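Researcher: I'd like a structural prediction for the single chain below. Treat it as a standalone chain; there are no partners to consider.
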Amino acid sequence: MTTPSEELSQLFEDYWQSWMQHDPLFASMCGDKRYDDLLPSAADTGYASWKEQMQGFRRRQDDIPRSALSPVEKLNYDIFARLLDMEIEELNHFFYRLPISRTAGFHMLLPDLPTFMTMEDLRDYDNYLSRLQAIPVFFAENIELMRLGISSGYLPPKVTLEGIEEGIEPHIVVDPADSAFFIPFKKFPDDFTSLEREHLSRSALETIRNSVVPAYRNLLRFVQEVYRPAARAGIAASELPHGAEFYQSRIRYFTSLDLSAEEVHAIGQREVHRIRVEMQSVVQKSGFKGDLDHYIAWLRSEPRFYANTPDELLKETALVLKRIDGELPRLFKTLPRLSYGIRTIPDFSAPGNTTAYYMPGAGDGTRAGYYYVNTYDLKSRPYYEIEALSLHEAVPGHHLQLALQQELTDLPNFRRFSGFTSFVEGWALYSEHLGLEMGFYQDPASDFGRLSYEMWRACRLVVDTGMHALGWSRQQAIDFMLENTSSTELNIINEVDRYIAWPGQALAYKIGEIKIRELRVYAMDALGKRFDLRQFHDVILLAGAVPLDILEQRVRDWVQAQG
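Model: Treating it as a single chain, here is the predicted structure.
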């Protein structure tokens, strides 16, 4: 007869194995190679089946007596319940029927396959080719999903499809050798024979010509002839079926807290006011002769703040990262073993993409994490943002937190490789502020860049809730961010369109950061001289990405344990 602990452990394992089978791409990202030859199902029935499986896991969990578990097991139990309930509720709102936009979607994910697959032996290449051969079916399923979305009222905002061709047309090539999907075949591992290289290259060219290119061509035709004409003029998530309930569930999903749109909006307005005062102080200290608006205009136009070539931008970023690495031991007791690198965002996705993003490494340590930098339109990538951006996306932000979490092998896999967005993004924004304690932001322009990034996240609370729940227009959101941040207009437009296409996600950053900073102030006040920042960071990080209310309880328990 099994014990409750054994039943819980088996439940976690069964769930994890089912998740890997349901989403082979995520499995590859986690370092699980068993499904490297498969793409996930994008059919509506596939999503329905996954929801049924999760409901089954949830029923199994309810049969396990929580009172019989250890404190650690109870924490895992509670987080598992939260994650399942969130995902089931998410599927109940059918947002997956809107799988594509100018800023994101399956069409932009698949060309990145080699970045989260290992390409080291013949089997890896055969798996990659199998995935390329499966693209026509995968695209066809997504197109049917979009047709279902049209017929059931899940219509995309027109603005999220403007310029979408830039993410599709580069893959409709005349010569397959020019395709981004052919890149792994331009350089093989040294131990491949000439016959193996020739065979693989020939197979790749044929697959790209007969499978990949037609799939992208069909997608382009569908978007132009069917999807865009059916799109709605409005932008609000509240316009979707059961839209008000949907957006409220997105607030819970991305903040892990029960907040209303009005409450989030008010928090954002308060933060915008506070940060604006700090920005004005930086302008005064800089000696600039002019007001805040003129200073922002000067930052946007001053040539010395902008790189002339992509290499210049990457070199400056690399220098900042190296300086950050040297400061980490002063603030952290526990650092991840996994290394990270820098890459440029691919040309085919750069125009509509964000300034930078992070791609986690493999859970088994065989693939490093990567900090992706956007070198498109260099006049939109100022030097004075590099410090804050690097602290956020690499260390001590996303790479440090996510790599460390993957190395917590005493956690169940679902906690090592997933978590709560408000924690992940809140930590990264908190990391930007840590730069002050690490000796960065010595240049007033760079310090202003930090504040502009913080202001950016505060503005997100205002404009996301404004557009999706409170009747704001897209232009109103753009104007608000132009008025309050030093970011360039192109960045702001791309970001606002991302918020429209991805309701609620932008709320996670500032809500999470506010909570982490509140908890630090609480601990410092309670412990006084006994407060140890390195130990505090261990308390925050060494349980992985947890909901903010559970994080608060962890910190309070730690403070109490200090006497």
